[in-house]
Design brief:
By secondary structure, the protein is of the alpha/beta class. It contains 14 helices and 5 strands. This is AAA family ATPase.
Length: 325
C-alpha cells in the first residue's frame, strides 16, 4: 500500500494480512500475538479498516465505521467514563464482560451495513471473562458469513486451546533500532537525541516501551534498575534511590511505564546470562508479567510497587549471591 500507516514496522504481518484479504478463502479468526508495546493495537484497527474498505475508496475511519466493532474493557465507573469522554487518562474494568460479547453476537444476526465484510476486534483477548470466552467460542465455531475476528493477545497461552485452534496466528516482531528511532521522532518530535538513544537501547525492540521511556523520563530509573541487576542491593540503598527517582506520588502512567520497563530490562538480560541466573531472571520476569496483567485495573501503592520491582531485580542480580541477605 502506498499510503502512510499509523504504525512503523510489522511489514511482514501487514503484507500477510493484505495477502489474506486478497485470497479467495480468508480465515475467519486471527490471533495478533506478540509482547506488549509492539503496535498490535494500531495494527488491529487499521487491519479491520482495510478489511471493510470498499473498492476504489480510501481506508475508512475504524472509530466510526458501522461494520467495525471493537471490544475492550469498559471504564471502571461513571467518573472514569467521564474522563474517557474528555480524552483524559482513565481506568478500565478488570476484564471484557460476557455481556459485551453477547451484545456483539446479537449484532451478528444482521448483515454488514455497508459491504460484505464485518470486523470484530477484541483488545486484548487476554482480558475476557471466563464466561465471555465461552460465549466467544460459540461465535468462532459458527461464524456468520462475512464476519472476521481479530483477537489481540499479549499472552496467547492464557487463551483456551479451543480458541487458539480456531485462529490463524499473525505474529509481531521487535522493531529495529532505526524503526524505533522513527517512532520516537514521529510521536515525540522534540525529544532529545541522547534520550532517544538510551530509550532505544532499553526498549528491546518495543516502540511502546521506547515512547514511555522518553515521555516519562525514565533514564534515571533505567540506570538504577541496571545497577540493581548487576550489583545486587544487600543494604536496600539502590532500592531507596529507585523509590526517590520514581517520586512520592507519580502519575499512574509513570508507574505502568516503570513496570513495563522493568519487565523489558529483565528480558534483555536473559540471552547473556548463565544457566543458574537465567532461572532467576525467568522467575522475576514471570512475577513482573503477573503484576503487569493486574496493574491496569488495580490501584497499587506507588511506594510498595517500586520496592516490589526493586526486590525482583535484586533477586535476579549478577552474581546471584549479591542479592542474598
Amino acid at each position: 500500500m502506498s499510503e502512510v500507516l499509523p504504525f512503523v514496522g510489522q511489514r511482514e504481518a501487514w503484507h500477510e494480512w493484505l495477502a489474506a484479504i486478497g485470497s479467495e478463502r480468508m480465515h475467519h479468526a486471527w490471533l495478533l500475538a506478540g509482547q506488549r508495546g509492539l503496535g498490535k493495537r494500531a495494527f488491529a484497527r487499521e487491519a479491520a479498516a482495510e478489511l471493510v474498505r470498499q473498492p476504489g475508496h480510501p481506508r475508512p475511519d475504524h472509530a466510526t465505521h458501522p461494520d467495525i466493532h471493537i471490544l475492550e474493557a469498559l471504564p471502571a465507573n461513571d467518573d472514569e467514563a467521564k474522563k474517557k469522554a474528555e480524552g483524559k487518562p482513565w481506568q478500565a474494568k478488570r476484564s471484557i464482560s460476557v455481556d459485551q460479547v453477547r451484545e456483539m453476537i446479537r449484532r451478528l444476526a444482521t448483515k454488514p451495513t455497508l459491504g460484505e465484510r464485518r470486523a470484530i476486534v477484541i483488545d486484548p483477548a487476554d482480558e475476557l471473562e471466563k464466561s465471555a470466552v465461552n460465549a466467544l467460542l460459540k461465535a468462532l465455531e459458527e461464524p456468520p458469513a462475512g464476519t472476521f475476528f481479530l483477537l489481540v493477545t499479549h499472552q496467547p497461552g492464557r487463551l483456551l486451546p479451543t480458541v487458539r485452534s480456531r485462529c490463524r496466528v499473525l505474529r509481531f516482531s521487535a522493531l529495529s533500532e532505526a524503526e524505533l528511532d522513527e517512532v520516537i521522532r514521529r510521536e515525540l518530535p522534540e525529544s532529545d537525541a541522547s534520550i532517544r538513544r538510551t530509550a532505544i537501547e532499553a526498549a528491546q525492540g518495543s516502540p511502546g516501551v521506547a515512547l514511555s521511556f522518553v515521555e516519562h523520563d525514565l533514564a534515571g530509573i533505567h540506570h538504577l534498575m541496571l545497577r540493581i541487576l548487576h550489583e545486587g542491593d544487600r543494604d536496600y540503598h539502590l532500592r531507596g534511590a529507585l523509590a526517590d527517582e520514581m517520586g512520592a506520588r507519580p502519575p499512574r502512567g509513570r508507574q505502568l511505564a516503570t513496570l513495563e520497563l522493568a519487565r523489558t530490562v529483565v528480558a534483555g538480560e536473559l540471552a547473556a546470562a548463565s544457566r543458574p541466573r537465567q532461572l532467576a531472571l525467568i522467575e522475576a520476569h514471570g512475577t513482573l508479567m503477573q503484576i503487569s496483567a493486574q496493574a491496569p485495573t488495580y490501584n497499587f501503592d506507588a511506594g510498595l510497587l517500586v520496592m516490589e520491582i526493586g526486590g525482583l531485580l535484586a533477586s535476579a542480580a549478577m552474581p546471584r549471591e549479591a542479592a542474598r541477605p
